[in-house]
Write a structure and sequence with these properties.
Elements (H helix, E strand, L loop, with lengths): L2 H7 L7 H18 L9 H8 L3 H7 L4 H18 L11 H18 L1 H8 L6 H25 L8 H23 L4 H15 L18
Length: 220
């Protein structure tokens, strides 16, 4: 098992319906606190007071406080993967425009979810486990991006394309994190800086022009 998997294995995940409801209520309470507080200001006792249960009830599921944020990271990454880049846009004519549309959808998602911003793009608040989860999710999103590109464009053979697209995500996230540190949000101005960085790096492995497919179907 990886370090990330070992860390998450420490979380005691309930099987019974009532216990699962309490488990999710704890995460909901931590999420509400994150809307206005940094992770460093949130303790098990603060979460217990927010949810209305005893601290030992939280420690039963999360033996260490950081495991609450690890579980929240799982929640947010799953929601992000399910909620962003789920459809192939019909009016896109270049990979540059497709990439911009994808990332601006991500910008809108993070700006609408302050707790997710704190947990996933909060810089110093990241644990090594959350960072590992985020990198694993990057590979999921890179694979999805390749699927969309392949449906829209005639793609050449590009060595290690998933790795290159993960690197684009990492470059982007660094600029988004800086925006959150400075402004509390991913501002349009900082997203524009991220867009320039993404496209500049992508041009090192993607041709400037990719021919469109004649239909919207996947290649046979």
């Amino acid at each position: 098992m990886t370090t990330s998997e070992l860390t998450r294995a420490e979380i005691r995940r309930p099987a019974q319906k009532r216990s699962r409801a309490r488990f999710e209520a704890i995460l909901d309470g931590a999420e509400r606190l994150l809307d206005t507080l940094p992770p460093s200001a949130i303790s098990i006792h603060a979460i217990a007071a927010e949810v209305g249960i005893s601290p030992p009830s939280i420690y039963h599921f999360f033996p260490e406080p950081h495991l609450v944020f690890s579980a929240l990271a799982e929640r947010y990454l799953k929601r992000f993967e399910e909620g962003v880049l789920t459809e192939v846009p019909g009016d896109i004519e270049s990979w540059q425009d497709l990439q911009t549309l994808q990332y601006r959808a991500g910008q809108a998602w993070f700006n609408a979810h302050p707790a997710a911003r704190q947990v996933l793009l909060g810089g110093p608040a990241w644990s090594s486990d959350i960072r590992a989860q985020d990198l694993d999710s990057n590979f999921v999103m890179a694979g999805r991006s390749i699927e969309v590109m392949t449906q829209k464009f005639i793609m050449p053979e590009i060595p290690d394309l998933p790795d290159r697209l993960v690197e684009v995500i990492v470059i982007n996230d660094a600029i988004w994190s800086l925006s959150i540190h400075r402004h509390g949000l991913i501002t349009d101005a900082m997203e524009e800086q991220a867009r320039r960085a993404r496209i500049a790096y992508s041009r090192t492995f993607l041709p400037e022009y990719l021919p469109l497919r004649t239909d919207a179907s996947s290649p046979s």
